[in-house]
Design brief:
Length: 525
């Protein structure tokens, strides 16, 4: 239907909607029901601000199993021109054949001169090939792995590379087809654009709205992907640093991540710095950058790259990750078993299996490894050994950071804490990670009057036993939870139910979960 003078047409995350003139950003979100988390920034791009490039090099290919994107190596090559002129004709084509090495959409007729020679192909190469060396039997061939084959390709050979959605080609089968092919139109940021949290912002005709971005995580970086999952556990990403070439979130800065994946940091690439200053920081590239020996690529933005380009420092952005993270820690077998079964993952129970069992460890430890093996072993303990704590990051930020880092609570929902000593009503703990070797514990939030039962203390560097963690079941007017004087004790939080410590002995281990995080996880499940 034509748009009237009392209506405007807007796009929300690529979908068009007709709204009454005078509609606000909030109105558009209600009508579209777009993915959005309250308080996050939304990008708005004006039609007049788009600067289209005549030389399109990137195309989105949609299939029933998702979207992949290819980039032309040389738009002026014979195959590049053939693609640009006829790509719409390939819509609706099904997979004619598939092998471990490649798959082919077609057939269709194409103006190519097939060569009778063996070609060498890398994973994710895209090439035209003529079955039986007959151009009327041409196929669009996508390479799954490095191999050599005689496809009847034209002289210029490989004309494009799959740049996003690479995992998709391993899931496609003979039943799948090309639903649509669309060029990716580049635009440059001009004056008429904004990124705002103000939902009362008025929209104009032909505005484009971006509420979130979507990420496909790389199976080549299971540990780096888990780092990204931890960073975006609340469904948001902080824009802490912004430059012309990247934005970054520093929330997990200094958290260790191994180097896993060496590849170019394309526009929209997600990488994590693994060594040096800023290790643990997550970057999202706004423009192409070369491969780096200190930046491991963990994923790729597949939707909403515009939001990354429009974002401003200090904002939060909504994000959705594919595949979704598998979170077992802190949950019961009964809670996770149906979820795992629905995604084809076998659950092996280990440890305590009573009705009050709670999972505290899993193997493999990462989501992508679990999906890859289609099996996970979950180790559980009695819920009595899961201790909920409320931490005080506002008044003891450095000490809370030490505690979370020591127990890996920044990247996991449950942390293990070995029991070091038990006497009278006092319980002392030492972390498995020897964090005191590289982290200081300066005095902060030291008690002045009385330490209450259940409060958690860490011995600071004013005493020899720096790094010792303690709690007591009774109030004390003289000594802190670790048995040290007040000046040597930093109070970092409290145990929600201190009586759960009763009965534990030296050599045991308890498991820690933050009360606020548990409430969040319960909502998500």
């Amino acid at each position: 239907m034509p748009i009237t003078s009392n209506e405007i047409s807007v796009e929300v995350n690529g979908q068009k909607y007709t709204l009454p003139a005078g509609s606000t950003l909030g109105d558009a979100l209600k009508v579209s029901r777009a993915p959005y988390i309250a308080g996050t920034a939304v990008g708005i791009l004006k039609k007049a601000a788009e600067k289209r490039t005549e030389n399109v090099t990137e195309y989105a290919i949609k299939t029933p199993r998702g979207e992949l994107r290819i980039e032309l190596k040389d738009p002026e090559s014979s195959s590049g021109k053939l693609w640009a002129e006829h790509y719409k004709e390939y819509e609706g084509k099904t997979i004619h054949w598939a092998s471990p090495e490649a798959l082919a959409f077609g057939p269709f007729e194409a103006d190519i001169k097939p060569l009778r020679e063996t070609g060498s192909f890398e994973a994710f190469d895209v090439v035209f090939g003529a079955g039986g060396f007959d151009s009327r039997n041409t196929h669009l061939i996508l390479s799954r792995k490095r191999h050599a084959a005689e496809y009847g390709s034209p002289e210029d050979g490989v004309f494009a590379t799959i740049v996003t959605g690479r995992n998709l080609i391993f899931r496609l089968s003979r039943e799948d087809s090309i639903l649509s092919i669309e060029p990716i139109i580049e635009w440059e940021q001009l004056a008429e654009k904004t990124c705002t949290t103000d939902l009362s912002t008025l929209l104009e005709n032909h505005d484009s709205v971006f509420t979130y971005f979507e990420v496909e995580l790389s199976r080549n970086s299971p540990k780096g992907a888990e780092h990204f999952y931890a960073l975006t556990r609340e469904g948001t990403l902080n824009v802490d640093v912004i430059t012309s070439s990247f934005i970054s979130d520093d929330s997990l800065k200094e958290e260790p991540v191994p180097y896993e994946n060496f590849e170019p940091r394309r526009e929209g690439a997600i990488s994590v710095r693994t060594v040096g200053y800023g290790a643990g920081r997550i970057y999202i590239s706004r423009e192409e950058r070369p491969s780096s020996l200190v930046h491991s690529v963990v994923g790729q933005v597949t939707k909403g790259l515009e939001l990354i380009k429009l974002a401003e420092k200090g904002q939060k952005l909504s994000v959705e990750s594919l595949p979704p993270q598998i979170v077992l820690l802190g949950h019961s077998f009964e809670e996770v078993e149906p979820v795992l079964s629905s995604i084809g993952v076998e659950l092996v129970k280990d440890g305590y299996t009573g009705k009050d069992a709670v999972i505290v460890r899993q193997d493999p430890p990462t989501t992508l490894e679990i999906f890859g093996e289609a099996k996970v072993t979950a180790y559980a303990v009695s819920r009595e050994k899961l201790i909920e704590v409320e931490l005080y990051p506002e008044i003891a930020p450095k000490s809370v950071d030490f505690f979370r880092h020591s127990l890996e609570l920044k990247t996991k929902t449950v942390g293990k804490l070995p029991v070091y000593m038990v006497y009278e009503n006092t319980y002392l703990f030492k972390t498995e990670k020897e964090v005191v070797k590289y982290k200081e514990i300066l005095p902060e939030n030291t008690p002045s009057g009385r330490v209450l039962a259940g409060e958690i203390g860490i011995t600071n560097q004013a005493a020899k036993r720096m790094g010792t963690i303690g709690a007591r079941l009774v109030d004390d007017d003289l000594f802190g939870p670790t048995g040290e004087k007040f000046s040597s004790t930093n109070i970092i939080g409290r145990i929600v139910e201190p009586e759960r410590l009763k009965g534990i002995e030296e050599g045991d281990a308890i498991y820690i979960i933050e009360a606020a995080r548990r409430r969040t996880d319960d909502k998500g499940n």
